[in-house]
Amino acid sequence: MAPTPVLTTATLPFSSLPLEPVGPPYNAWGRYGSSDQLGTLNMLTPSIAAAAARTEICTGTRVSLDWPFNKPVYPSYGRDRLKHGIRRRGSEGRVVNEDVLEFNPQTSSQWDGLRHYAFASSGGIMGRGILLDYVSGAEANSIQVNPLASTSIPLTHLERLIASHNIVLSRSGGDILFIRSGLTAAFDKLDDLSQCMLSERPTADFAGVKATEEVLK
Fold first, then answer.
1. CB 131 within 8 A of CB 178
2. CA-to-CA distance for 168 and 128, rounded, in angstroms?
3. Per the omega criterion (within 30 degrees of 0), is the bond before 3 cis?
4. b/e sequence 18-56, b meaning 16+ C-beta within 10 Å
5. Which end of the chain is more exposed for a tag (fewer CB within 10 A), N or C?
6. pLDDT of residue 167
7. Cis? peptide before 68, omega within 30° of 0
8. For 178-216, how does the pLDDT look when each residue is reduced to its tens digit (9 = 90+)?
9. For every residue of 136-180, which 3-state class applies, written as one string?
């Protein structure tokens, strides 16, 4: 029997996990119903999006978070590189060029989670974004960070960043956390040979938030 869905946004106690006994540890499967595919994206309600727009948008400047399709030039684990062609389909007196792209969705900004992209049909992923510049914070505190190696970012460091910038997290949920680890900047400093060697490592190790129970909470 599927667990009874808990349809509240931010009131689910951590001690109630896992919701699905046969699932992995700390799972919240069934929180929004047995057929749900969005998980915590359900927190991004129209009222949450409207509040974010009302209180956070100041200049209207837009910033793309996508990595170019051709990055990394040499994907890890032997995955195929981007193939970009132009197909000319016009006739006499009429020029029509079409772009043809072939790429592995595990590369670039990792498009393999297309169920997330499908959320666009419901209005897209919109909410209050919180950017934590971990790289700058680490440098200011003489903490060495190597974005291109297995480096754990402790929760305590992120909590200090939040406190130092007087950031107040929403108690009703719906905040979207962005962490600048410095990966793309470090990658762009590599020459072509170094980028190739990076892709040939046995495991694709990079900096990331340390996986702990405290982070889940």
1. yes
2. 12
3. no
4. ebeeeeeeeebbbbbeeeeeeeebbbbeeebbebbeeee
5. N
6. 92
7. no
8. 999 999 999 999 999 999 999 999 988 999 999 999 998
9. HHHHHCCCCCCCCCCEEECHHHHHHHHHHCCCCCCCCCCCEEEEE
89 - beta bridge partners? none
CB 27 within 8 A of CB 17: yes
Specify the 3-state DSSP secondary structure of 105.
coil
- Fill in the DSSP letter of residue 67: P
DSSP category for residue 9 = S
> Which H helix or E strand runs over 114?
helix 114-117
Return the higher-pLDDT residue of 72 and 3.
Answer: 72
Q: Which residue has the tokens 């209180």?
A: 55
- Look up residue 21 and give its DSSP letter: T
**Cα of 95 vs its chain's centroid, Å:** 39
Question: Phi first, then psi: what are they for 24, rounded to 5°?
Answer: -70, 165
As given in the structure block, the two tokens for residue 119 are 């959320």
104-135 confidence digits (pLDDT tens): 888 887 766 545 555 555 667 888 999 999 99
Whole-number Å distance between alpha carbons of 200 and 12: 43
Q: Is 34 left (phi over 0), alpha (psi -120 to 50) or beta?
A: alpha
